[in-house]
Design a protein that fits this description.
By secondary structure, this protein is of the alpha/beta class. Helix content is about 30%, strand content about 20%. The two termini are about 25 Å apart.
């Protein structure tokens, strides 16, 4: 008979004061680390609902995770498994990562290539791009300011850096007319180097019309997290963006990746502002399942510290399980 056990930890990490999620500042990032043990083996995962985006609160996630773990730890036969169906996305993802580590199913290699993220200061993005070797891919948040301003900035980068591939994320901010205003300021010869824009308009139908009119490719992001989403090839849709904390279990994420690849589309693993711990797991998932695609994981610098597992090359201090940042619960 193999004994099973688990431990949960709550973490609180101070954030950069400029981080805005929809209509609120994110002053700190709270989440859970889960450790599971079965005999001599162990696995870890991170459960971190993202405020304003996740359907569940951290309190709801904690209660559900604890209930699931109690059921799992009561099993004694090594072959018995507890399904992850019916769980909140963040809980399903964190627990599935812990189970994958426990079973030796999550590769150790990390894809640490990244698309630098610009939150408003173009000079910062120039500096980050100077340090990148190989494919130059960057991401800019649009839709926070005037659409014509966003268009001018995107065009400026594409003009200044001839080998730049640009990813844009609008979070469904624009009407079709606003999106047209954005495109008006991006020169036609530059549009092909916009790798994709994530859901520019308030509805998918508007976004598809925008792409048809402008030739600027789309990526589905919010749509991927809707209950009945199915990957469908389209001339105007180049990619799907998978934020596992918001999508669900590792199996669900892998199924979406396989569907996208089967239809000749990119699948991009992207962060939901997880800690360095969570980012290292996302980088391992990206290396294992989307090795040829640059993931969207440039969010660590928004935090004041790393957590338990360090991101390669980061100069941020590393908080361990015994630090003030972490509390066993």
């Amino acid at each position: 008979m193999t004994m099973r056990s688990y431990q949960l930890y709550h973490y609180t990490i101070p954030m950069d004061s400029q981080v805005v999620l929809r209509n609120r500042f994110l002053k700190q990032r709270d989440g859970l680390l889960v450790q599971v043990k079965c005999g001599e083996h162990e696995g870890w995962g991170e459960i971190a609902p993202l405020p304003e985006y996740s359907e569940e609160t951290l309190e709801q996630a904690l209660a559900q995770a604890r209930e699931w773990l109690e059921g799992w730890s009561a099993l004694r036969c090594p072959c018995e498994k507890t399904p992850l169906t019916g769980l909140y996305p963040s809980v399903a993802f964190g627990l599935s990562c812990a189970m994958a580590e426990l079973g030796g199913e999550l590769g150790e290699v990390m894809n640490t290539a990244f698309a630098p993220l610009c939150y408003g200061d173009p000079d910062e993005l120039y500096a980050k791009l100077d340090n990148i070797e190989g494919e130059k891919v960057a991401k800019i948040k649009v839709g926070l300011y005037e659409a014509n301003r966003d268009g001018l900035i995107a065009d400026m980068f594409l003009e200044a850096i001839p080998d730049l591939q640009l990813r844009l994320d609008a979070n469904r901010a624009w009407t079709l007319e606003k999106a047209r205003q954005f495109a008006k300021y991006v020169k036609p010869e530059h549009r092909a180097r916009i790798q994709f824009i994530e859901e520019p308009c308030k509805t998918p139908a508007m976004s598809l019309e925008f792409a048809r009119e402008t030739g600027i490719a789309l990526a589905w992001d919010e749509s991927v997290r809707e209950p009945h989403f199915a990957v469908a090839a389209s001339d105007n849709v180049r990619a799907i963006v998978i934020k596992p904390t918001l999508v669900g279990s590792l199996d669900r994420c892998v199924a979406l990746i396989e569907q996208a690849h089967a239809q000749g589309m990119l699948a991009v693993i992207s962060s939901s502002i997880e800690s360095s711990f969570g980012l290292t797991q996302l980088a391992r998932i990206a290396a294992q399942y989307t090795p040829e695609t640059t993931p969207g994981l440039d969010t660590l610098d928004l935090m004041h510290t790393q957590l338990v597992r360090a991101w390669p090359g980061s100069n941020l201090p590393l908080a361990g399980l015994q630090s003030a940042v972490v509390q066993a619960i």
